[in-house]
Fold this protein.
Amino acid sequence: MHDSSARYGFFPSAWSARQAASASRDFAELKVNAQGLFWVEFNPQDGRNTLWRWHAEQAQCLTPAHLSMRSRVHEYGGGVFCLTEHGVGFVNDSDQQLYLQQLDDGSVQRLGESLQCRYGDLHFDRLAQALIAVEECHGQGRVRNRLVSIALATGQRTVLAEGADFYTSPVLSDDGQRLAWIEWDRPAQPWTQTRLCSARRDSRGHWPLLKVVAGGNSEESLQQPRFDGEGRLICLSDRDGWWQPWGEVDGYWQRLPHGVEADHASAPWQLGSCSYLPLHGGGLLLTRLVNGWGELLTQSAAGVEQPLATDYSRFRALAVDSDFFYCIAEAPNGLSAILAIRRGDAQVQVLAGGEQPLAADQVALPEALDYRSNGERAHGFFYAPPRASTLAEQPPLVVFLHGGPTSACYPVFDPRIQFWTQRGFAVADLNYRGSSGFGRAYRQRLEGQWGVVDVQDAVAVVAHLAGAGRIDPQRAFIRGGSAGGYTALCALAFHSVFRGGASLYGVSDPLALRRVTHKFEGDYLDWLIGSPITDAERYEARTPLFHASRITAPVIFFQGGRDAVVLPEQTASMVAALQAQGVEVEQHFYPDEGHGFRRAEHLQEVLELELGFYRRLL
C-alpha cells in the first residue's frame, strides 16, 4: 500500500526488479503461410530465441531445447528465419549456420557447412528451391559480405551478388523472375546512403542483368524493398526528407501518391525489418511515426486511410494473409503482443503477449516531450510517478538515453521505466537530436556532433521539466547503455546538472572503441565525431576518460566480461581514473554477459543496485 508521507524516490512497490526483468520477453519477425503464423520469441529466463507457431487456435514452440535462433550478421543480426515448402529455414545462434526444420516431425538438418560465415535476412526462392541469404565471411584478416543462394536439397552455395561492402533485404517478385536488394559501401551507414538494386533471372537460373534502380547519392537512404502483386518494385526512400514509399510508376521511379511527411520505418540496425507491405489488389499496409508515436493503417490506391489497432503506439514485423493483418504491437499500458486484425471489420485479437502487469492507476503513461535545446527542437517522453507524495517536494528525475546512438525510444510500456516511476522517480526517455523517427534532417544532426547535441539535449530537458514544475532539478540522475552511456559520462564530465549517473557498458574512450569495432560500424565513429587524425582535438575534447578529473558526481558502472564492443578494459580504465581522484564509484562485472545484458537475473540485479545507489545520493 502506498504511504503518501513517503518521500519521492522511496515509495514502496509490489512491482519488483525481478518482475520488471522477467517482463522483458519480446517477439520478432512474423511470417505467415497456409501452415500457420510463425514468430521468434526471446525468453530472458534462459536467454534463448525460439520459433513459435500459431495454428488451430493455439501457440506451440517448435525449437528443440539444444538450439536457439539468432543471426550475428553485422553483429546485430535479424532476418533469422523464412518459410519454405519443406519447413522452416533458420540460423542457429551457436554456429551461425543455416538449418532446415521439418514441420511434420520437427527434425532439423544443417544446410552445408561454412563455419567461418554467418547468415541472415533469409528469403525462400521457390523456383530454385533454395534459401537466399546475406552472407558474412570472417577470415584472412577481413570480413566479406555477399548475397548467396543455398540449395535446400544439397546445401550447394551460389554467389548472387558481391563487390559492395554490405548487402541487406533480398526479396523476390511473386513470379520469381526479379530479385531486389539494398547495398552500400563504406564509409556510408545504412541510414545515410544506400543503393536499391534489381536483377532478372535468365533461362539458366542466373542473375546477370543487374541495375541500380535508385540511390547512390549522399542524400538518400533506401530500405525494405518489396514487389507488389503486379510485379512493381517499391521501397522506402528518404530522398524527400522522410522514409516514405517510392516505386516504379509507368516506367519511372517516383514517390507514391498520398504520402505523409513521416518516417515509415526506424533506422535499419537489424536485418529483416518489415514496417510496410503492398496489398494484393492495390494499396498498402503501413506503419509510421508521428511525433514519435506509432500508427498502423491501410492506405488504398486512392489514398483513403483506415487506422488500425489504435490502442497501441508502436508496430513492427507486419504480415498479411487473406483474412488478417498481423503485427507485433506495443502499448503504453501493456507488454508486447502478437496481434491478428481481421481485415473485414478491423477487430483485434491478441494471439500472444499483451499482458498488463500493473493496474491502470499504477501505470506511468508517456507524455510527449517537445522542448528547446540550444535553439533547436528536441524530443522524448516524460513519465510522471502515478502516485503523489503529500510532502512539499517534486520528484527526482532519471534521464534515460538510448543506445545506437542513431536509434530511438518509443512511448510503450517499458518495465524498467515503470520500476522507477513506481518508486516515485520521474523519467525522461529522450529522443535526442540524431535519433531516428523524426526525419532525415533530425537524424543527421549527430554527424560530427556526437557528444555535443545529445549532451545538450540531456541537460536542457532538466531545465525544461524544472521550469514546468514537474521535477526537482537538484535531484536529477542520468543513465545510458552503450552509446547512451557515453552521452551520460559526457554530461557528467562537462556539466554540473546531475546528482549522479549510471553507465551500462558505456563508451568512455571513443578512440579505443574505434580500434576494436566491427565492420558494420567501422566508419561510424568518423561520421559521429570525425577523423582521428585531422580531428584529433575533437576526440580529445569529447573523451570522458581524458576528462575524468572534471567528474565530481558519483557514478555506477555495469560491464559484461564478453563485451566485444566496449571492452572491459575500457570501463576499468574509467573506473580507475575516477577512483584516483576520490569520486564515489561502484562497479559491477558480469563475466558471462556481452554488449547488452540478456539474463533475467542480471537485469534484476542491475535495477536493484542502481536504485540503491541513487537512493543513497538522495
Q: What stands out?
A: The domain at 358-444+453-522+556-617 is CATH 3.40.50.1820 (Rossmann fold). The longest helix spans residues 600-617. The longest strand covers residues 130-139.
